[in-house]
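User: C-alpha cells in, sequence out, please.
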C-alpha cells in the first residue's frame, strides 16, 4: 500500500474536529459558524493540538469554499428581490456601509494602522452576517416579524454592495496611487460586465435548462450547474474581476430559473462541506499572541460594531420612513460582522496589501459580536420602549408615525413633467442597454472572432471583411432597437409630449437624432476596426448600412422575438412561484407544467379548418361570427395564401380558402364538421395544446406560445371582465382559467378576472411576455 496523501489525512482531521465541535455548539444552541471557527483554532497554531501536514491544501479547499458560499448566496439573491425591498433596504444599507467605511477608516488611522489596513477595516465593519442573522431569527421565532423582513431586505442590498466593494478595494489596493478617474473607470467596467453577463445569461441559460430538462436527472443537473459556476469564475478572472464575483453572478442568473429550488437542494451539500472548511480555515488564522497584543483594538472595534453600527442602521431605517420601534429592532439585529468580513479580510491578505494581524482581529470581533447577536435582538424591544418614553412629545409623534412621514414624498408629478420623466427613463434605458449589448458583441468579435478568421484564412482583407459582416449581422437587431421607440408606454407618452407644444417636438427631434448618430458611430467604428479603407469610404458605407437597418421591419421583428424570450426567462421563476402560491391557497397539490399532462392538454385542442367557396362564413367579420359564444372556440390564426395573421381582431373579414386555426374542446370538431358552415378539416391538424406548442417552436416567424399568468390583488387585470381587460388588443387570447380548483375553457367575455385566478393565454411570444411582466411582478 502506498503512503496516504497529505490532502486526505488533513481533510479527515479537519472534518472530524469540526464535526465534534459543531455537535457541542448545536447542543449549546450556538451558531454553527462559531463551532467551525473554534475547530479551526483547535487545529491551527492558536492551540496547536493537532498537526496538519500541508496547510496549502486547506487554503485551496477554503478558496473553493468561498466560491460555493457565494454561488449559494447568488442562488438566494434575485434582482427582482432587490427591486422589491424598495427604498428602505437601499437607504438603510447605503447609510450603514458609507458610515461604517468612514468610521472604520478613521479609527484605523487613529490607531496608526495605515491607509490600506484602515480602508479594509472599514469594509469589514460595514458588512453584517446573513447566515448568523437568519440563524438567530429562526432560533428566536422572529422570521415572520415585520422588522425581520426589512432586515432581510437590507442584507440583500448589502450582498450586492459587498461584491462591488470587493472589486473597488482590489482596484484601489493594486493601484500605485488613488485616482478618482481610475475608481470611476472600475465602477463603469463592473456595471458594464454585470449587465452584459446578466442579459446574455438570462437569455441563454434558462432556455438551455428548459430544452434539456427531460435529459437532466439530479446528477446531471449538479454537474452542469457546478460547471457553469466554475466557467463563470474563469471568465470573471480573465476579464480582471475576482473569482468570487463570477460565482455570485452565475448563482444570481440561475436564481431566475424555475429550477432554482432543485439546484439549491443539489448544491447545498457542496456549500455545507466546502463552507465548513472555509470557516475552519478562518479559525486556523487566529493567533492568540496577536489577540493578546491587540486586545484593546479588538475591544474598541467590537464596541464600534455594537454601538456605532447599530446607530447607523437605526438612522437609515428612520430616514427611510420606518417608525422608531421597527428601526431599533432592525438596527440591533444587524450589529455583527460575519462571512463577508472574512472574505474581505482574506482578499487583503491575498493581495498582500494588509498586515497579518488584521485577519485574526476581524475573526475575534466576529466571534464576539456573533455570540452577542441573540442578546442584542432581545435587547432591542426594551431599548425601543425606553427611547420612546424619554424623548420629547413632538419627536415621539414623528417617530411613532415614521411610515406615514416616509411615505409622504410630496405630490406626484403631473402633465409634461411626469411624461418627460417616463420618456427620458425609457429613452436612457433603451440607449444604455442596447449599447452594452452592441459593445459586448463587438468585444467578442475583436478578441475571438477576428483572430479565428485570421487563423483560418490567408493573409489579406477577407478575414476583416467577414468579421465585420458577422459583427454587423449580430448587432443589427440591437442597432435597430437603439433607433426605435417601440415601447407601448413610450408611445403613449410620446404622443402626449408631441401634441403638447412645438418646444417638445424640437427636443424630441434632437433626442431622436442623438440615437441615430450613436447607431451610426457604432457602425462606422465596426467598419473602421475590421476593414482598412479610407475614412470617406467608411462613412459612406456606414450611412448605407444605417439606412438599411432603419428601414428593415425584419430586424425589429427579430429583436422583439429576442426580447420576448428574455422577458419570459426573466419572469420564469416568479411566475412559477406565484402559480404554486395560488395552488397552495386553493389546496391544489399537482404541479402545473405544460409538458406534464396538464388539464388543458386533456381538454383543449388546436386544429385547422378550411373555408369552402359556399360557406356561410364568407365575407363576414370575426365579431359577427362570434365563435367564442356560439361554439366555445377561439380563432388564434388565419392563413390566407402565404400570409398568416395571429390572433386576428374582431373586424377581420374571412374569405373563401382561408384556413382557420381554432382552439377549443375536441368535441367541437365534430360539431363544426357536421354544421352547414362548409368547413373542411385539415388533415393531421388536430393536436393537443402541448403538441401545438412544440410544433410552433419550429416556425421561423410568428410563433404562438401558451403561458399561465397568476393574478394578484395589485394586478391591472384584477376586477375587470375579459372584454374590459383588452387582452385581445395585446395580440393574446384567454383560452383557460383556473379558479378554486375549477377549470374553464375559453371563458365568456363578461366573466370577471379575480385575484387568485390563473389565466392561460395564447399569443405571440413578445405580447405574452409583456402581459406576464405587467402582472407577475404585481403579486
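Assistant: Sequence out:
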Amino acid at each position: 500500500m502506498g503512503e496516504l496523501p497529505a490532502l486526505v489525512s488533513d481533510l479527515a482531521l479537519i472534518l472530524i474536529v469540526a464535526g465534534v465541535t459543531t455537535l457541542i455548539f448545536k447542543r449549546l444552541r450556538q451558531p454553527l459558524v462559531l463551532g467551525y471557527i473554534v475547530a479551526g483554532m483547535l487545529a491551527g497554531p492558536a492551540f496547536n493540538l493537532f498537526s496538519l501536514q500541508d496547510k496549502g491544501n486547506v487554503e485551496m479547499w477554503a478558496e473553493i469554499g468561498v466560491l460555493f458560499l457565494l454561488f449559494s448566496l447568488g442562488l438566494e439573491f434575485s434582482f427582482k428581490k432587490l427591486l422589491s425591498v424598495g427604498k428602505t433596504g437601499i437607504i438603510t444599507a447605503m447609510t450603514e456601509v458609507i458610515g461604517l467605511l468612514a468610521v472604520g477608516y478613521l479609527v484605523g488611522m487613529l490607531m496608526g494602522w495605515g491607509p490600506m489596513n484602515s480602508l479594509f477595516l472599514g469594509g469589514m465593519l460595514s458588512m453584517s452576517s446573513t447566515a448568523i442573522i437568519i440563524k438567530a431569527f429562526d432560533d428566536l421565532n422572529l422570521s415572520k416579524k415585520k422588522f425581520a423582513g426589512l432586515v432581510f431586505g437590507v442584507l440583500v442590498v448589502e450582498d450586492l454592495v459587498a461584491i462591488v466593494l470587493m472589486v473597488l478595494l482590489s482596484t484601489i489596493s493594486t493601484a500605485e496611487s488613488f485616482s478618482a478617474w481610475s475608481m470611476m473607470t472600475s465602477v463603469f467596467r463592473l456595471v458594464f460586465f454585470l449587465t452584459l453577463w446578466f442579459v446574455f445569461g438570462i437569455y441563454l441559460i434558462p432556455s438551455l435548462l428548459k430544452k434539456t430538462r427531460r435529459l437532466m436527472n439530479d446528477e446531471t443537473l449538479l454537474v452542469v450547474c457546478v460547471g457553469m459556476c466554475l466557467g463563470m469564475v474563469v471568465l470573471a478572472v480573465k476579464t480582471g474581476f475576482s473569482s468570487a464575483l463570477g460565482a455570485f453572478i452565475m448563482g444570481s442568473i440561475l436564481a431566475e430559473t424555475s429550477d432554482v429550488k432543485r439546484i439549491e437542494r443539489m448544491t447545498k451539500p457542496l456549500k455545507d462541506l466546502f463552507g465548513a472548511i472555509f470557516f475552519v480555515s478562518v479559525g486556523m488564522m487566529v493567533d492568540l499572541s496577536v489577540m493578546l497584543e491587540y486586545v484593546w483594538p479588538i475591544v474598541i472595534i467590537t464596541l464600534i460594531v455594537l454601538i456605532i453600527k447599530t446607530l447607523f442602521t437605526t438612522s437609515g431605517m428612520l430616514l427611510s420612513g420606518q417608525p422608531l420601534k421597527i428601526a431599533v429592532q432592525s438596527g440591533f439585529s444587524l450589529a455583527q460582522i460575519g462571512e463577508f468580513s472574512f472574505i474581505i479580510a482574506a482578499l487583503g491578505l491575498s493581495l498582500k496589501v494588509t498586515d497579518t494581524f488584521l485577519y485574526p482581529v476581524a475573526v475575534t470581533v466576529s466571534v464576539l459580536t456573533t455570540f452577542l447577536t441573540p442578546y442584542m435582538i432581545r435587547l432591542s424591544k426594551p431599548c425601543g420602549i425606553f427611547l420612546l418614553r424619554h424623548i420629547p412629545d413632538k419627536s415621539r409623534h414623528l417617530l411613532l408615525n415614521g411610515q406615514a412621514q416616509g411615505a409622504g414624498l410630496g405630490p406626484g408629478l403631473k402633465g409634461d413633467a411626469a411624461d418627460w420623466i417616463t420618456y427620458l427613463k425609457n429613452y436612457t434605458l433603451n440607449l444604455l442597454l442596447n449599447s452594452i449589448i452592441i459593445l459586448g458583441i463587438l468585444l467578442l468579435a475583436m478578441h475571438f472572432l477576428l483572430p479565428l478568421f485570421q487563423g483560418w484564412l490567408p493573409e489579406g482583407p477577407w478575414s476583416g471583411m467577414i468579421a465585420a459582416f458577422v459583427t454587423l449581422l449580430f448587432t443589427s437587431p440591437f442597432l435597430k432597437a437603439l433607433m426605435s421607440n417601440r415601447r407601448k408606454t413610450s408611445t403613449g407618452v410620446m404622443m402626449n409630449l408631441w401634441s403638447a407644444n412645438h418646444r417638445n417636438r424640437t427636443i424630441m427631434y434632437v433626442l431622436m437624432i442623438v440615437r441615430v448618430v450613436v447607431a451610426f458611430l457604432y457602425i462606422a467604428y465596426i467598419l473602421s476596426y475590421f476593414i482598412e479603407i479610407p475614412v470617406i469610404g467608411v462613412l459612406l458605407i456606414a450611412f448605407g448600412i444605417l439606412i438599411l437597418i432603419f428601414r428593415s421591419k425584419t430586424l425589429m421583428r427579430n429583436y422583439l422575438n429576442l426580447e420576448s424570450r428574455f422577458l419570459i426567462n426573466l419572469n420564469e421563476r416568479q411566475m412559477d412561484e406565484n402559480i404554486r402560491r395560488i395552488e397552495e391557497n386553493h389546496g391544489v397539490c399537482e404541479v402545473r407544467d405544460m409538458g406534464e399532462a396538464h388539464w388543458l392538454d386533456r381538454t383543449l385542442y388546436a386544429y385547422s379548418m378550411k373555408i369552402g367557396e359556399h360557406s356561410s362564413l364568407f365575407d363576414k367579420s370575426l365579431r359577427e361570427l362570434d365563435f367564442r359564444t356560439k361554439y366555445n372556440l377561439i380563432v388564434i390564426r388565419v392563413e390566407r395564401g402565404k400570409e398568416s395573421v395571429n390572433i386576428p381582431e374582431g373586424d377581420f373579414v374571412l374569405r373563401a380558402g382561408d384556413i382557420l386555426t381554432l382552439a377549443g374542446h375536441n368535441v367541437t370538431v365534430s360539431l363544426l364538421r357536421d354544421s352547414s358552415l362548409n368547413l373542411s378539416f385539415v388533415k393531421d391538424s388536430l393536436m393537443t395544446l402541448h403538441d401545438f406548442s412544440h410544433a410552433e417552436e419550429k416556425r421561423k416567424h410568428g410563433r404562438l406560445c401558451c403561458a399561465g399568468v397568476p393574478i394578484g390583488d395589485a394586478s391591472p387585470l384584477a376586477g375587470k371582465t375579459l372584454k374590459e381587460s383588452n387582452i385581445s388588443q395585446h395580440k393574446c387570447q384567454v383560452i383557460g382559467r383556473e379558479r378554486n380548483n375549477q377549470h374553464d375553457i375559453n371563458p365568456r367575455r363578461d366573466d370577471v378576472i379575480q385575484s387568485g385566478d390563473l389565466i392561460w393565454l395564447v399569443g405571440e411570444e413578445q405580447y405574452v411576455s409583456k402581459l406576464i411582466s405587467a402582472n407577475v411582478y404585481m403579486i
